[in-house]
Design brief:
Keywords: Methyltransferase, S-adenosyl-L-methionine, Transferase. With 195 residues, the chain is α/β, with parallel strands linked by helices. The chain contains 5 helices and 9 strands. It has a single domain, classed as Vaccinia Virus protein VP39 (Rossmann fold, 3-Layer(aba) Sandwich), CATH 3.40.50.150. 24% of the residues lie in helices and 31% in strands. The chain has a 7-stranded mixed β-sheet.
Length: 195
């Protein structure tokens, strides 16, 4: 069990445990009262639980262990969260949100780096670290309401500038709203708003 502010979060087997990138996003959320929020890749549910203090939250993960873990943690913290299992936007087809949160799998990886376990999905970004990020960016606009916002976590290991450029090309106003240096990489929160 870990503590974050007033929350107690159970760390579960086969689920990405909250780390620096999780806390950076949780500390810098721009969720407003009454927002409809989607968190993709919820893991233990920590970010979704923090967002649920103000918003109506749907939390998804490709990892069924994570969906179960997030639901348990929501219960422990008396947070009302809808949890769904599936890849990226599959579980919320046809739905639109005010805010979409994503701590993307951003680490460059090769077959030798993978364990073959479901937890690999939490960090495996493919050879350049962008496989999931690019897929997310391609689909995100179709799930945002007008004036909607995306907050995503990314590492300098997977070309932050390219992400900003792609989002700007899609009409988003983009800024880095938080950043921290960890060992060999910078971790940032990119906030992108649809006009």
């Amino acid at each position: 069990m870990i503590k974050y502010k007033n929350f107690k979060i159970r760390v579960c087997e086969n689920v990405y445990a909250p780390a620096e990138d999780t806390f950076l996003l949780a500390d810098n959320l721009r969720v407003r009262e009454g927002d409809e929020v989607l968190e993709i890749g919820t893991g233990t549910g920590l970010v979704a639980i923090v967002a649920a203090e103000k918003a109506n939250v749907t939390a998804t993960d490709i990892n069924p262990h994570a969906v179960e873990c997030a639901a348990k943690n929501a219960e422990i913290n008396n947070a009302r969260i809808r949890t769904l299992q599936g890849d990226l936007f599959e579980p919320v087809k046809g739905e639109k949100f005010d805010v979409i949160l994503f701590n993307a799998p951003y680490l460059p990886s090769s077959d030798e780096d993978l364990t073959g376990e479901i937890i690999d999905k939490a960090w495996d970004g493919g050879e350049d670290g962008r496989r999931i990020i690019d897929k997310f960016i391609k689909e995100v606009k179709g799930h945002l309401r007008g004036g909607g916002m995306v907050q995503m976590v990314q590492s300098s290991l997977s070309n932050i500038e390219k992400t900003i450029e792609k989002l700007e090309d899609m009409g988003f106003y983009v800024e880095i709203t938080a950043s921290e240096r960890f060992f060999y990489e910078d971790i940032v929160v990119i906030t992108a708003i649809l006009p």
